Amino acid sequence: MKTIKHLIGDQETIGSTGRSQPVFNPATGEQIAEVVLGAAAEIDAAVRAAKQAFESWSDTPPTKRARVMFALREVMNRRRDEIAKTISLEHGKTHDDALGEVTRALEVVEYASGIAAHLQGDFSRDVGPGIDSFAERQPLGVVAGITPFNFPSMVPLWMIPMALACGNTFVLKPSERDPSSANLIFDLFREAGLPDGVLNIVHGGKAAVDAVLDHQEIQAVSFVGSTPIAEYVYTRGCASGKRVQALGGAKNHMIIMPDADLTQAVDALMGAGFGSAGERCMAISVAVPIGEETADRLVEKLAPQVAALKIGPASDPQSEMGPIITNEAKQRISDCIAAGEKEGAKVVVDGRGLKLQGYEDGFWLGGTLLDNVTADMSVYKTEIFGPVLSVLRAKDYAEAVKLINTHEYGNGTAIFTRDGDAARDFAKRIKVGMVGVNVPIPVPVATHSFGGWKRSSFGAHGIYGPEAVHFYTRLKTVTSRWPTGIRSGAQFTFPSMD
Ligand code: NAD
User: Fold this and answer.
1) For residue 315, what is the domain's CATH number?
2) pLDDT digits over 5-48, tens only?
3) How confident is the prediction for the chain on average, in pLDDT?
4) Residue 487: pLDDT above 80?
5) Residue ID of nearest Cα to ligand 1 atom 21
6) Which atom of ligand 1 is nearest to the CA of 281?
7) Ligand 1 pocket, 178 CB below 6 A?
8) Which helix (H) or strand (E) covers residue 245, if one does?
9) Does residue 245 have its Cβ closer than 6 Å to ligand 1?
10) Are 200 and 29 in contact (CB under 8 A)?
11) How far, in Å, is the centroid of ligand 1 from the Cα of 316?
């Protein structure tokens, strides 16, 4: 059986904890590997390797660091299929969906390739007599990333290219549920010419995360995962003096106005609700039709399509949706549906109990459509993170906006309408970080930055794009006087131009 090991400096190692956990193919339910679980000693070894590499990497001109990103782009494009297959094998998402993940990761690599321009500083001549000022952004040192299972390639690559291009060195603690993608990323960077120690991978769970949070040599932590862990990471990381950005969970609503193109809205809900089995932080999990008439038409159109979803393994090109990541997750999602039913939601399409011939031991669930969901139900309040779409009927637009604005999460949202006034008002008033107008999954492109509001994100910065340049660097402003001949005598008042 394959053992997935830590990658520290130029070494593959099993570490010293003696602990490991199984890795499954969720389509078959079979164990395909084991991953070693590191703790403080492994994190410390990775930090030492990263610290040693920092001096020369941060001294490398940005244009030369960028060349590694250009090379990485070529390597990733060439090995695109292999990256997608590695994602699908342990995650379960369809091959095309995994390829989409790779494409979005590549966008970040491309943005990082322009780092010399993004790091360009400011210069002001003659701020005083013979005095000039310049501002620059310098790297932080060793930084770390902690990532979730649902984008095992893209989310690490939201962080690593930007952190490295800015001149930092990196320790990644990937999800223990689909860890092979992280080791493949390491391999891709090596092929692209990244020097030893600049990127290190330590596998593990809570013990490894705690070691990251407490390590005094780690300057900053980027976390993406569920809200309770994001809050924990933010609090503990900040308490030990780190800069922390921690992106959490979501409950994303899509408003369907009475004037919306219903076919377009239903297509959007199908893809955004059930793509990747709903295991996306930007998945739409609540449809909010405005008015009973819109709601009736919507449910009537949605139900047969949810029932007809093509569910199957990534190896089948016809599959629209793969399995759930683990058996426990499958059980938890089934329990959420049962709770919703008990609280009064109408189960229009029930995905529980799905069996797939030849894949009887896989972690399968069909698509589920719940109607008449109300704001007080647990199925509405909690993030289900599975192929479950709730329909919450709002009497008017104002009620829908209030609903979204009072929800604890604020990651993504969308409105489908032909009314520009409503769309403009929505974009301005809604208390959510990423907003779509007739776009169901408004994940910003790499030239912008990604980030939710409210309890979907802790910390001041979004991830990737311009926000990442700020997160992974600190500002230095130099004020200098030349020529040396200017003399004004000792000045005891606060320096100013007066
Ligand atoms: P998770 O919170 O269980 O795990 C994320 C990371 O935290 C993993 O590396 C895991 O090892 C670690 N972790 C888990 N339990 C821990 C604990 N008790 N103490 C310390 N570390 C711990 O999340 P997941 O199930 O892997 O991913 C799904 C979640 O991630 C969903 O909530 C989803 O919305 C969220 N997510 C958010 C974004 C975003 O950008 N906001 C993107 C992707 C996923």
Assistant:
1) 3.40.309.10
2) 999 999 999 999 999 999 999 999 999 999 999 999 999 999 99
3) 97
4) no
5) 206
6) 34
7) no
8) strand 243-247
9) no
10) no
11) 28
Note whether residue 196 is domain-resident. Answer: yes
The domain boundary residue, chosen from 382, 406, 437 = 437
Considering only CA atoms, which of 354, 159, 381, 367 is closest in space to residue 250?
381
CA of 182 to the centre of ligand 1 (A): 15
Residue at 193: amino acid letter: G
Looking at 437, 470, 493, the residue that finishes a domain is 437
452 lines ligand 1 (CB under 6 A): yes
Q: Give the three-state DSSP class for 172.
A: strand
Going by alpha carbons, the residue nearest to atom 39 of ligand 1 is 247
How many structural domains is the chain composed of? 2
Is there an atom of ligand 1 within 6 Å of 250 CB? yes
- Specify if 97 maps to a domain: yes
| Predicted pLDDT of residue 217 | 98
Asked whether residue 226 falls in the same domain as residue 214, the answer is: yes
Assess whether 293 and 215 both reside in one domain: no
pLDDT tens-digit readout, 55-77:
999 999 999 999 999 999 999 99
424 within 8 A of 435, measured Cβ to Cβ = no
Q: What ligand 1 atom has the least distance to the C-alpha of 230? A: 2
Candidates 28, 112, 127; CA nearest to 65 is 112
Position 151 in a domain: yes
Same domain, 299 and 216: no
CB of 98 sitting under 6 A from ligand 1: no
Task: Report which residue type is found at 2.
Answer: K
Give residue 229 CA to ligand 1 midpoint distance, Å.
Answer: 7
User: Is residue 166 annotated as part of the catalytic site, yes or no?
Assistant: no
The model's pTM is 0.97
Instruction: Give the pair of three-digit tokens for residue 273.
Output: 């609700």
Decide: 229 in ligand 1 pocket, CB within 6 A: yes
Tokens (6 digits) for 401: 């906006």
DSSP run (H or E) holding 105? helix 95-113
261, 205: one domain: no
Task: Kindly report the protein residue whose alpha carbon is nearest to atom 23 of ligand 1.
Answer: 225
pLDDT (tens digit per residue) in 389-412: 999 999 999 999 999 999 999 999
